[in-house]
Amino acid sequence: MSAAGGFVPPPYPYDRLLELQEVAAALPGGAVDLSIGTPCDPPDPAVVAALAGSGAERGYPASVGTARLRDAAVAWFADRLGVEVDAEQVAACIGTKEFVAGLPHWLRLRDPSRDTVLHPAVSYPSYAMGATLAGCRAVAVPVDEEWRLDLSAIDPADAERALCLWSNTPGNPAGGLDDLGAVARWGRAHGVPVFSDECYVEFTWDGEPSVPGRPPGRTILEHGTDGVVAVHSLSKRSNLAGLRVGFYSGDRELVGYLSELRKHAGFMVPGPAQVAGAVALGDQGHVELQRRRYRHRLELLAGLLGRLGLDTPLPGGGFYLWVPAPDGDAWALARRLAERLGIVGSPGEFYGPAGAGHLRLAVVQPDEAFDLVAGRI
User: What element of type H or E holds 359?
Assistant: First the structure.
C-alpha cells in the first residue's frame, strides 16, 4: 500500500534476476537465459505468410474471435484432444495472461457474493495476482508430492466463497498432471467454476493420449463442459508469443458471459493475428517438430546437471526442469549455475512459498546454447 492507501505493485519477479544475469553474462559466450518461457524457435513459415498477407488490417476484428479462428479451434479440439464443442462455446483472448489476470474481476461482477480465487500452491503467479488486482482473496490449494492439486485440502469455508478454481495441466513450473476428471467433479459438487489452464498440453510427456495415435495430452472438456472452461494459447504451441492469440472454451453460460463482457471492454485479438492463428491451429507438423526439440533439450540439460551432482527429474509435461536445490536454497543454486555455467534460472519462490526449495529452468534457448553450457562443464 502507498502512503495514501492505494495499491503499489510488488516488484515483478523476473526483475529480481538482473544481478544473476550480469554474473552469467560475464562468462565467455555470455548468459544462457532459462528464466522465462519465451519461445526462441522459428514459427511455421505458413503462419508468418498468413500474418503478412491477411488483408485484415483495416477493419475492427471480432472480439469473440472470427468464425475462421473459432472453427479452427473447434477442429483442433476434435482432432488433437477428441472432444466436440460448438463454435459458440469458443471465444478468443489476447494471449491468455490478460485473461488469467482479469478473470477474478469479471467473475466478481457476475457474483459479488463471492471473493476468493483458488489456485495451486505452486503455480504461475498471475492466478494469485489476478485476485489481488480485483480486490479478492487468493487462496493457495496445497499440492501433493507429484505437484498435483490436493482437492481434499480445500477448506469448505473457502469453497463457499470461491469465484473459481484454477487448474494448470501440465503445470508451470513443476510439470505436474492434475486428475482433471476429479477437478471437474469437485467444481460441480461445490458449485465453483473451474478454469483449466492447458497452454502446455501439446508438450505432455506422460499418460495416455486422448486420441489414439496422438501424443499424450488431456483436457478438462473430456469430462463435459458444464461448469468448466479450458484455456489455450498459441504462444507455446506454435512459437507465437508475440502475436497474443489465445482462446477459451467450455460452459456455454460462462463463455457467453465472459465474451459479452470482454466485447464491451474492447478486448480484441488483432485481425491479422487471428488469421495467422487459424492457420497455426490447422497444422500439427510444426508442433511435432517443437515437441522433439523440447524433449531433446529437457533430457540434455537434465543430464548436464546430473554431471554436477544435481538429480533432476523430467517433468510430466511442459518444457521446464524443476530442480531440487541442495539444502533447499534455490537462490544459492541459481548463483552457482550463473557463475559456473552462465545459466540464469528462476528461484521457485516466484511460484509460491511452497516452491522455494526448487529452481525452474526453461529449455527455450536454441541447441547451440546448451552446447555452450556443456562446454563449460
Answer: strand 358-362
